[in-house]
Amino acid sequence: MISQRIKRMTPSATSTLNGMVSEMKARGEHVISFNVGEPDFDTPAAVREALKEATDTGKTRYVAVGGITPLREAIAAKLKKDNGLNYTAEQICVSTGGKQAVFNAVMTICDPGDEVIVVAPCWVSYVEMIKLAEAVPIVVESAEDYHLSINNIRAAITNRTKAIIINTPNNPTGAVYNEEELKALAELAKEHEMYILSDEIYEKLIYGDKKHVSIASISQDAYDRTITLNGFAKAYCMTGWRLGYAAGPADIIKGMISFQGHSTSNSTTMVQWAGIAALEKCDTEVEEMRQAFEKRRDYMKQRLDAVTGIKAGMPDGAFYFMPDVSCWFDKTYTDGDENVKIGDAQGFSQYLLREAGVAVVPGDAFEAPNTVRFAYPVSVETIKEGMDKIEAALAKLK
Ligand SMILES: Cc1ncc(COP(=O)(O)O)c(C=O)c1O
Protein backbone atom coordinates (compact mmCIF):
# COMPACT_ATOMS: atom_id res chain seq x y z
CA MET A 1 0.00 0.00 0.00
CA ILE A 2 1.34 3.40 -0.85
CA SER A 3 1.38 6.04 1.85
CA GLN A 4 -1.47 8.40 2.70
CA ARG A 5 0.94 11.23 1.94
CA ILE A 6 1.30 10.16 -1.66
CA LYS A 7 -2.37 9.27 -1.96
CA ARG A 8 -3.26 12.82 -0.94
CA MET A 9 -1.34 14.25 -3.90
CA THR A 10 -3.48 15.45 -6.77
CA PRO A 11 -2.40 13.96 -10.07
CA SER A 12 -1.19 16.70 -12.38
CA ALA A 13 -4.07 18.20 -14.34
CA THR A 14 -1.66 18.51 -17.23
CA SER A 15 -1.01 14.79 -17.47
CA THR A 16 -4.05 13.98 -19.65
CA LEU A 17 -3.04 16.68 -22.06
CA ASN A 18 0.62 15.65 -22.04
CA GLY A 19 -0.43 12.08 -22.75
CA MET A 20 -2.44 13.25 -25.76
CA VAL A 21 0.48 15.39 -27.01
CA SER A 22 2.91 12.48 -26.75
CA GLU A 23 0.53 10.14 -28.55
CA MET A 24 0.00 12.64 -31.36
CA LYS A 25 3.74 13.22 -31.74
CA ALA A 26 4.35 9.46 -31.74
CA ARG A 27 1.85 9.14 -34.60
CA GLY A 28 3.98 11.68 -36.48
CA GLU A 29 1.45 14.50 -36.13
CA HIS A 30 2.71 18.06 -35.98
CA VAL A 31 1.87 19.63 -32.60
CA ILE A 32 2.61 23.24 -31.72
CA SER A 33 3.58 23.41 -28.07
CA PHE A 34 2.34 26.48 -26.24
CA ASN A 35 2.33 24.29 -23.13
CA VAL A 36 6.01 24.00 -22.32
CA GLY A 37 7.68 26.31 -19.79
CA GLU A 38 11.25 26.24 -21.00
CA PRO A 39 13.31 28.66 -23.11
CA ASP A 40 14.11 27.40 -26.62
CA PHE A 41 17.63 28.90 -26.61
CA ASP A 42 20.81 26.89 -26.10
CA THR A 43 22.63 26.99 -22.80
CA PRO A 44 25.32 29.72 -23.23
CA ALA A 45 28.71 28.47 -24.49
CA ALA A 46 30.56 29.77 -21.41
CA VAL A 47 28.44 27.52 -19.20
CA ARG A 48 28.99 24.46 -21.38
CA GLU A 49 32.74 25.14 -21.46
CA ALA A 50 32.89 25.58 -17.68
CA LEU A 51 31.17 22.20 -17.26
CA LYS A 52 33.72 20.53 -19.49
CA GLU A 53 36.62 22.21 -17.74
CA ALA A 54 35.25 21.19 -14.32
CA THR A 55 34.77 17.60 -15.46
CA ASP A 56 38.21 17.42 -17.08
CA THR A 57 39.92 18.79 -13.99
CA GLY A 58 38.36 16.27 -11.64
CA LYS A 59 35.72 18.44 -10.01
CA THR A 60 33.54 15.38 -9.87
CA ARG A 61 33.48 14.46 -6.20
CA TYR A 62 31.08 14.92 -3.31
CA VAL A 63 31.18 18.48 -2.02
CA ALA A 64 29.53 20.39 0.85
CA VAL A 65 25.78 19.73 0.91
CA GLY A 66 24.93 23.44 0.69
CA GLY A 67 27.16 23.98 -2.33
CA ILE A 68 30.76 24.79 -3.22
CA THR A 69 32.00 28.02 -1.63
CA PRO A 70 32.91 29.74 -4.95
CA LEU A 71 29.34 29.29 -6.23
CA ARG A 72 27.78 30.41 -2.96
CA GLU A 73 30.04 33.46 -3.06
CA ALA A 74 29.09 34.15 -6.70
CA ILE A 75 25.39 33.87 -5.75
CA ALA A 76 25.95 36.25 -2.82
CA ALA A 77 27.62 38.73 -5.21
CA LYS A 78 24.73 38.39 -7.66
CA LEU A 79 22.15 38.97 -4.93
CA LYS A 80 24.03 42.10 -3.87
CA LYS A 81 24.43 43.45 -7.40
CA ASP A 82 21.00 42.60 -8.86
CA ASN A 83 18.76 42.61 -5.82
CA GLY A 84 20.44 44.86 -3.25
CA LEU A 85 20.58 41.97 -0.77
CA ASN A 86 23.43 41.17 1.60
CA TYR A 87 23.86 37.47 2.24
CA THR A 88 26.92 35.58 3.38
CA ALA A 89 27.83 32.30 1.70
CA GLU A 90 26.51 30.46 4.79
CA GLN A 91 23.08 31.99 4.20
CA ILE A 92 22.87 30.29 0.82
CA CYS A 93 21.92 26.71 -0.01
CA VAL A 94 22.54 25.45 -3.55
CA SER A 95 20.03 22.84 -4.68
CA THR A 96 19.17 20.55 -7.57
CA GLY A 97 16.90 23.04 -9.35
CA GLY A 98 14.72 25.85 -8.13
CA LYS A 99 12.09 23.23 -7.40
CA GLN A 100 14.20 21.56 -4.74
CA ALA A 101 14.98 24.95 -3.20
CA VAL A 102 11.24 25.63 -2.79
CA PHE A 103 10.57 22.14 -1.44
CA ASN A 104 13.46 22.39 1.05
CA ALA A 105 12.07 25.69 2.30
CA VAL A 106 8.52 24.37 2.72
CA MET A 107 9.76 21.24 4.52
CA THR A 108 11.99 23.29 6.79
CA ILE A 109 9.45 25.81 8.03
CA CYS A 110 6.19 23.82 8.12
CA ASP A 111 4.83 21.68 10.93
CA PRO A 112 1.77 19.49 10.35
CA GLY A 113 -1.37 21.65 10.35
CA ASP A 114 0.44 24.93 9.61
CA GLU A 115 -1.27 26.99 6.94
CA VAL A 116 0.62 28.37 3.97
CA ILE A 117 -0.98 30.96 1.72
CA VAL A 118 -0.50 30.68 -2.03
CA VAL A 119 -1.76 33.24 -4.50
CA ALA A 120 -3.75 31.85 -7.43
CA PRO A 121 -3.15 31.42 -10.26
CA CYS A 122 0.04 29.78 -9.03
CA TRP A 123 2.78 27.43 -10.13
CA VAL A 124 1.57 23.83 -10.06
CA SER A 125 3.93 22.48 -7.41
CA TYR A 126 3.37 24.84 -4.46
CA VAL A 127 0.12 23.27 -3.31
CA GLU A 128 1.46 19.72 -3.56
CA MET A 129 4.68 20.61 -1.75
CA ILE A 130 2.70 22.14 1.12
CA LYS A 131 0.56 19.00 1.33
CA LEU A 132 3.67 16.81 1.32
CA ALA A 133 4.90 18.77 4.34
CA GLU A 134 1.54 17.90 5.99
CA ALA A 135 0.72 21.60 6.09
CA VAL A 136 -2.44 23.13 4.65
CA PRO A 137 -2.42 25.15 1.43
CA ILE A 138 -4.71 28.18 1.60
CA VAL A 139 -5.31 29.36 -1.94
CA VAL A 140 -6.30 33.02 -2.29
CA GLU A 141 -7.36 34.78 -5.47
CA SER A 142 -5.13 37.47 -6.85
CA ALA A 143 -6.59 40.82 -7.90
CA GLU A 144 -8.23 41.09 -11.31
CA ASP A 145 -5.00 42.05 -13.07
CA TYR A 146 -3.22 39.14 -11.40
CA HIS A 147 -1.46 41.41 -8.92
CA LEU A 148 -1.55 40.76 -5.17
CA SER A 149 -4.86 41.34 -3.45
CA ILE A 150 -3.72 42.38 0.01
CA ASN A 151 -7.35 42.24 1.17
CA ASN A 152 -7.74 38.63 0.06
CA ILE A 153 -4.45 37.71 1.70
CA ARG A 154 -5.41 39.48 4.94
CA ALA A 155 -8.77 37.68 4.98
CA ALA A 156 -7.01 34.31 4.66
CA ILE A 157 -4.70 34.80 7.64
CA THR A 158 -5.46 32.78 10.79
CA ASN A 159 -3.46 32.00 13.90
CA ARG A 160 -2.14 28.91 12.08
CA THR A 161 -0.70 30.88 9.14
CA LYS A 162 2.99 30.13 8.92
CA ALA A 163 4.00 31.56 5.56
CA ILE A 164 3.01 32.92 2.20
CA ILE A 165 4.57 31.90 -1.11
CA ILE A 166 4.83 34.55 -3.80
CA ASN A 167 6.25 34.31 -7.29
CA THR A 168 7.29 37.38 -9.24
CA PRO A 169 7.56 37.52 -12.25
CA ASN A 170 4.77 35.01 -12.13
CA ASN A 171 4.21 31.63 -13.67
CA PRO A 172 1.50 31.29 -15.01
CA THR A 173 0.28 34.89 -15.27
CA GLY A 174 3.40 36.88 -16.22
CA ALA A 175 2.52 39.49 -13.54
CA VAL A 176 5.43 41.43 -12.03
CA TYR A 177 4.67 42.70 -8.53
CA ASN A 178 5.58 46.35 -7.92
CA GLU A 179 7.28 47.85 -4.91
CA GLU A 180 4.06 49.20 -3.37
CA GLU A 181 2.28 45.87 -3.29
CA LEU A 182 5.39 44.12 -1.97
CA LYS A 183 5.69 46.77 0.76
CA ALA A 184 2.06 46.18 1.71
CA LEU A 185 2.65 42.45 1.84
CA ALA A 186 5.82 42.91 3.91
CA GLU A 187 3.81 45.00 6.41
CA LEU A 188 1.14 42.31 6.62
CA ALA A 189 3.78 39.62 7.10
CA LYS A 190 5.34 41.62 9.91
CA GLU A 191 1.98 42.19 11.60
CA HIS A 192 1.13 38.47 11.50
CA GLU A 193 4.66 37.10 11.83
CA MET A 194 4.60 35.03 8.66
CA TYR A 195 7.53 33.82 6.65
CA ILE A 196 7.67 34.90 3.03
CA LEU A 197 8.89 32.44 0.41
CA SER A 198 9.75 34.56 -2.60
CA ASP A 199 10.24 32.57 -5.80
CA GLU A 200 12.13 34.84 -8.20
CA ILE A 201 13.16 32.33 -10.86
CA TYR A 202 11.86 34.51 -13.73
CA GLU A 203 13.51 37.73 -12.51
CA LYS A 204 15.62 38.20 -15.64
CA LEU A 205 12.60 38.05 -17.95
CA ILE A 206 10.97 41.44 -17.50
CA TYR A 207 9.74 43.75 -20.25
CA GLY A 208 9.07 47.41 -20.93
CA ASP A 209 9.97 49.73 -18.06
CA LYS A 210 9.06 47.26 -15.31
CA LYS A 211 11.71 46.16 -12.84
CA HIS A 212 12.11 43.26 -10.50
CA VAL A 213 11.94 43.96 -6.77
CA SER A 214 13.00 41.35 -4.23
CA ILE A 215 10.70 41.55 -1.24
CA ALA A 216 13.64 40.86 1.08
CA SER A 217 15.07 44.24 0.03
CA ILE A 218 12.01 46.17 1.27
CA SER A 219 13.06 46.39 4.94
CA GLN A 220 15.18 44.71 7.58
CA ASP A 221 12.07 42.96 8.89
CA ALA A 222 11.19 41.65 5.41
CA TYR A 223 14.78 40.46 4.98
CA ASP A 224 14.63 38.60 8.29
CA ARG A 225 11.43 36.72 7.38
CA THR A 226 12.05 36.02 3.68
CA ILE A 227 13.58 33.05 1.95
CA THR A 228 14.58 34.19 -1.52
CA LEU A 229 14.35 31.33 -4.03
CA ASN A 230 15.87 31.29 -7.46
CA GLY A 231 17.37 29.04 -10.12
CA PHE A 232 19.36 28.92 -13.32
CA ALA A 233 16.80 27.16 -15.54
CA LYS A 234 14.91 30.11 -16.98
CA ALA A 235 17.53 32.90 -16.98
CA TYR A 236 20.37 30.84 -18.43
CA CYS A 237 18.46 28.22 -20.43
CA MET A 238 19.63 25.52 -18.04
CA THR A 239 16.40 23.61 -17.45
CA GLY A 240 18.04 20.19 -17.70
CA TRP A 241 21.07 21.12 -15.61
CA ARG A 242 19.06 21.22 -12.36
CA LEU A 243 20.58 24.08 -10.42
CA GLY A 244 18.84 26.45 -8.02
CA TYR A 245 19.34 28.12 -4.68
CA ALA A 246 17.80 29.64 -1.59
CA ALA A 247 19.05 32.58 0.46
CA GLY A 248 17.65 33.50 3.83
CA PRO A 249 18.02 33.58 7.61
CA ALA A 250 21.00 31.46 8.72
CA ASP A 251 18.97 29.09 10.94
CA ILE A 252 16.48 28.30 8.17
CA ILE A 253 19.21 27.76 5.59
CA LYS A 254 20.98 25.47 8.07
CA GLY A 255 17.75 23.47 8.41
CA MET A 256 17.34 23.30 4.64
CA ILE A 257 20.90 22.04 4.24
CA SER A 258 20.29 19.43 6.90
CA PHE A 259 17.12 18.24 5.10
CA GLN A 260 18.90 18.21 1.73
CA GLY A 261 21.78 16.31 3.33
CA HIS A 262 19.46 13.39 4.01
CA SER A 263 17.68 13.48 0.66
CA THR A 264 19.87 14.39 -2.33
CA SER A 265 23.06 15.86 -0.79
CA ASN A 266 25.00 18.32 -2.92
CA SER A 267 23.71 19.24 -6.34
CA THR A 268 25.93 17.92 -9.16
CA THR A 269 29.43 19.21 -8.51
CA MET A 270 30.52 20.12 -12.05
CA VAL A 271 27.15 21.76 -12.71
CA GLN A 272 27.82 24.01 -9.73
CA TRP A 273 31.11 25.11 -11.30
CA ALA A 274 29.26 25.81 -14.55
CA GLY A 275 26.75 27.88 -12.55
CA ILE A 276 29.53 30.33 -11.66
CA ALA A 277 30.12 30.93 -15.37
CA ALA A 278 26.38 31.54 -15.85
CA LEU A 279 26.36 34.21 -13.15
CA GLU A 280 29.58 35.87 -14.20
CA LYS A 281 29.84 35.54 -17.97
CA CYS A 282 26.40 35.45 -19.54
CA ASP A 283 24.82 38.90 -19.23
CA THR A 284 24.87 39.40 -23.01
CA GLU A 285 23.07 36.13 -23.76
CA VAL A 286 20.48 36.81 -21.06
CA GLU A 287 19.75 40.25 -22.50
CA GLU A 288 19.50 38.89 -26.06
CA MET A 289 17.04 36.28 -24.89
CA ARG A 290 15.02 38.83 -22.91
CA GLN A 291 14.71 41.01 -25.99
CA ALA A 292 13.60 38.07 -28.11
CA PHE A 293 10.95 37.18 -25.50
CA GLU A 294 9.70 40.75 -25.43
CA LYS A 295 9.12 40.65 -29.20
CA ARG A 296 7.34 37.32 -28.90
CA ARG A 297 5.17 38.61 -26.08
CA ASP A 298 4.16 41.68 -28.10
CA TYR A 299 3.30 39.57 -31.12
CA MET A 300 1.34 37.00 -29.14
CA LYS A 301 -0.62 39.73 -27.37
CA GLN A 302 -1.57 41.22 -30.72
CA ARG A 303 -2.75 37.83 -31.94
CA LEU A 304 -4.65 36.94 -28.73
CA ASP A 305 -6.39 40.33 -28.79
CA ALA A 306 -7.62 39.56 -32.30
CA VAL A 307 -9.51 36.48 -31.04
CA THR A 308 -12.92 37.53 -29.78
CA GLY A 309 -13.55 36.47 -26.23
CA ILE A 310 -9.96 35.89 -25.21
CA LYS A 311 -9.28 38.46 -22.54
CA ALA A 312 -5.52 38.59 -22.22
CA GLY A 313 -3.93 41.33 -20.13
CA MET A 314 -0.38 42.36 -20.98
CA PRO A 315 2.06 40.28 -18.91
CA ASP A 316 5.16 42.20 -17.80
CA GLY A 317 7.41 39.21 -17.26
CA ALA A 318 8.14 35.48 -17.65
CA PHE A 319 6.87 33.89 -20.89
CA TYR A 320 3.21 33.18 -20.30
CA PHE A 321 -0.26 34.54 -20.99
CA MET A 322 -3.14 33.40 -18.79
CA PRO A 323 -6.35 34.60 -20.44
CA ASP A 324 -9.89 33.91 -19.27
CA VAL A 325 -11.51 31.76 -21.94
CA SER A 326 -14.76 30.97 -20.11
CA CYS A 327 -16.91 32.57 -22.80
CA TRP A 328 -16.08 29.54 -25.00
CA PHE A 329 -17.31 26.99 -22.47
CA ASP A 330 -20.90 26.97 -23.78
CA LYS A 331 -19.85 26.44 -27.40
CA THR A 332 -20.11 23.11 -29.14
CA TYR A 333 -18.52 21.15 -31.95
CA THR A 334 -19.51 17.96 -33.69
CA ASP A 335 -17.62 14.71 -33.24
CA GLY A 336 -19.13 12.24 -35.70
CA ASP A 337 -22.86 12.31 -34.91
CA GLU A 338 -22.29 13.74 -31.47
CA ASN A 339 -22.58 17.36 -30.35
CA VAL A 340 -19.82 17.98 -27.83
CA LYS A 341 -19.80 20.96 -25.47
CA ILE A 342 -16.46 22.59 -24.66
CA GLY A 343 -17.60 22.72 -21.02
CA ASP A 344 -14.45 23.86 -19.21
CA ALA A 345 -10.78 24.76 -19.60
CA GLN A 346 -9.84 21.08 -20.01
CA GLY A 347 -12.39 20.78 -22.81
CA PHE A 348 -11.10 23.97 -24.41
CA SER A 349 -7.49 22.72 -24.33
CA GLN A 350 -8.46 19.31 -25.64
CA TYR A 351 -10.42 20.91 -28.49
CA LEU A 352 -7.45 23.11 -29.49
CA LEU A 353 -5.17 20.11 -29.45
CA ARG A 354 -7.47 17.93 -31.48
CA GLU A 355 -8.73 20.51 -33.96
CA ALA A 356 -5.76 22.89 -34.25
CA GLY A 357 -2.87 20.68 -33.16
CA VAL A 358 -1.92 23.32 -30.56
CA ALA A 359 -1.21 22.42 -26.92
CA VAL A 360 -2.05 24.88 -24.13
CA VAL A 361 -2.41 24.10 -20.42
CA PRO A 362 -5.85 24.25 -18.76
CA GLY A 363 -5.94 26.66 -15.82
CA ASP A 364 -7.13 24.07 -13.26
CA ALA A 365 -3.48 23.05 -12.97
CA PHE A 366 -2.79 26.54 -11.62
CA GLU A 367 -5.92 26.88 -9.46
CA ALA A 368 -7.55 29.11 -12.11
CA PRO A 369 -10.26 27.03 -13.82
CA ASN A 370 -11.62 29.69 -16.22
CA THR A 371 -8.28 30.22 -17.89
CA VAL A 372 -5.70 28.51 -20.02
CA ARG A 373 -1.96 29.16 -20.08
CA PHE A 374 -0.22 30.01 -23.33
CA ALA A 375 3.58 29.72 -23.06
CA TYR A 376 5.57 31.54 -25.73
CA PRO A 377 9.18 30.35 -25.47
CA VAL A 378 8.99 29.56 -29.19
CA SER A 379 9.82 31.54 -32.34
CA VAL A 380 7.55 34.28 -33.72
CA GLU A 381 6.96 32.03 -36.76
CA THR A 382 5.71 29.24 -34.48
CA ILE A 383 3.49 31.68 -32.59
CA LYS A 384 2.06 32.84 -35.92
CA GLU A 385 1.39 29.30 -37.09
CA GLY A 386 -0.19 28.32 -33.76
CA MET A 387 -2.40 31.40 -33.53
CA ASP A 388 -3.53 31.01 -37.16
CA LYS A 389 -4.61 27.46 -36.34
CA ILE A 390 -6.31 28.48 -33.09
CA GLU A 391 -8.28 31.20 -34.86
CA ALA A 392 -9.43 28.76 -37.53
CA ALA A 393 -10.42 26.14 -34.93
CA LEU A 394 -12.37 28.58 -32.74
CA ALA A 395 -14.20 29.92 -35.79
CA LYS A 396 -15.70 26.42 -36.23
CA LEU A 397 -17.33 26.37 -32.79
CA LYS A 398 -21.08 26.95 -32.60
C1 LIG B 1 7.56 29.47 -10.66
C2 LIG B 1 8.56 28.38 -10.77
N1 LIG B 1 9.33 28.12 -9.71
C3 LIG B 1 10.24 27.14 -9.74
C4 LIG B 1 10.41 26.38 -10.87
C5 LIG B 1 11.43 25.27 -10.82
O1 LIG B 1 12.44 25.40 -11.73
P1 LIG B 1 13.66 24.37 -11.81
O2 LIG B 1 13.46 23.33 -10.78
O3 LIG B 1 13.60 23.83 -13.19
O4 LIG B 1 14.87 25.19 -11.55
C6 LIG B 1 9.63 26.61 -12.00
C7 LIG B 1 9.75 25.76 -13.20
O5 LIG B 1 8.93 25.72 -14.07
C8 LIG B 1 8.67 27.65 -11.95
O6 LIG B 1 7.91 27.93 -13.01
Q: What does the model show?
A:
With 398 residues, this protein is of the alpha/beta class. The protein has 2 domains: 4-42 and 285-395, Alpha-Beta Complex (Aspartate Aminotransferase, domain 1), CATH 3.90.1150.10; 45-282, Type I PLP-dependent aspartate aminotransferase-like (Major domain) (Aspartate Aminotransferase, domain 2, 3-Layer(aba) Sandwich), CATH 3.40.640. It is built from 14 helices and 14 strands. The strands form 4 sheets. A 7-stranded mixed beta sheet has the order 2-8-7-6-5-3-4, with helices on both faces. Strands 9-14-13 form a 3-stranded antiparallel beta sheet, with helices on one face. The mean pLDDT is 95. The structure holds pyridoxal-5'-phosphate. Residues 37, 97-99, 102, 123, 167, 171, 199, 201, 231, 233, 239, 244 line the site of pyridoxal-5'-phosphate. The site of pyridoxal-5'-phosphate has 14 residues, from helix 5.
Q: Short description, anyone?
A:
By secondary structure, the chain is an alpha/beta fold. The protein is 42% helix and 15% strand. α3 (45-56) packs antiparallel against α11 (269-281) and α12 (283-305) packs parallel to α14 (380-395).
What is the total domain count?
2
Strand tally is 14
Structural class: alpha/beta
**CATH architecture assignment name of the largest domain:** 3-Layer(aba) Sandwich
The ligands bound in this entry are: pyridoxal-5'-phosphate
Arrangement of strands in the largest sheet:
2-8-7-6-5-3-4
